[in-house]
Amino acid sequence: MTPSEKQSSQQNTGILVIVTLSTVPLIMVLGNSMLIPVLPTIQSSLHISQLQVSLLITLFSIPAGVVIPLAGILSDRFGRKKVIAPALLLYGAGGVISGLSALWTGGGYWLMLTGRILQGIGAAGTAPIAMALVSDLYKKDERSRALGIIEAANGMGKVVSPILGSLIALLSWVAIFFAFPVLCIPAALAVWFLIKEPKQEKEPPPLSQYRDQLLKTWKRQGRWLLVAFLAGALTLFILFGVLFYLSDFLEKRYGLDGVLKGLVLAIPLLAMSSVSYWAGSHIDQKTRLMKRLIIIGLLAIAAGMGIVPFVTNTYLLIGLLVLIGIGSGLILPCLNTMITSAVASEERGIVTSLYGSVRFLGVALGPPTFGALSAMKTGLFLGNAAAAGLTALLALWFIRQPERLRGKGGQSRILIRKNRLRQV
């Protein structure tokens, strides 16, 4: 093989790897977003309340949020692929159970929830572990771009999923659940066979030592990590809560249903996905820029949420939701890069997974909260606007750690520079 052929082969392998890894968060996000446009249809078909139908979202996200730290520990100790591939298969199996429950029992709500819980447990081992694997595979100069692509894939999943869910629902809303194994099985095989996971430079420490290392990391960086976790959870809490509110609003006020409603729901999500890709391509390892974009994003969300209660024009309402989507797109890739790059590789799985947990909990709590408090629209939106503004102030005050991003092997940037100087 000539040098040019070898280089071409490496580039193709690199493209296959990032495409494969991008499918993992894309499939994960389908678990909730694909159902959002058909939730009113499911509610009427099963004769259940708005709170009960929102549990199809909540009981996917809460188990995921609870199990993610365990998935992170397992991935640190046994490898990322050994967690991601089985998790995708479990995710697909849960979809089969939820779909069969509707076919066999004429709408078995409780068995359907059981399938959603299993899907949530499977989802715990997907996107958060894929983020850790990206950080293992890519050097610091390439990592932010790769993580931006991953977040953009996550956002693109949110864009495509309302449309895809609406299209599949033209056959039957039950068919949506059977789409999961069709997507998950090829993705699991691709992760297993196409990605060559790097060997860990150090043996995983005993669990007691692992806990001590994690506590040291948290003592050293806990304050800004807490603010970063809060920013990620709040962003997704607001985003999914607003999407749930908008889905119900479009159907009740305009009778909008099916693909047309899916297209409208995709507008703010497309804004988020596009901005996520742009941010990931420009932030590199510039933590001051990341901090700035996080604050701007939170203020954009605060502004959008603060104005929504006083708007009656639907086009202006969608414009404000686009503003919220833009704010989310600025925040999430910056948080991904800062959090995954702030710790050593042997701790990356658990720290990234803890971050994934709070993201899932934000997604889980958004729809039922907005559904339960929809009658108090003004207080609901203004309260979230205030929360976003306060989080922006906390980010301004506490996120001030430009020296703590780490390279591929987990060394801090300062330590890398010192080592280079010693070699000279």
TrEMBL record:
InterPro entries: MFS, MFS_dom, MFS_Efflux_Transporters, MFS_trans_sf, Sugar_transporter_CS, Tet-R_TetA/multi-R_MdtG-like. GO terms for molecular function: transmembrane transporter activity. It comes from the Bacteria. It is found in: Cell membrane. The keyword Transport applies. The keyword Chaperone does not apply. One of its GO terms (cellular component) is plasma membrane. Gene3D superfamilies: MFS general substrate transporter like domains (1.20.1250.20). This is Putative MFS-type transporter YitG. It comes from Marinithermofilum abyssi.
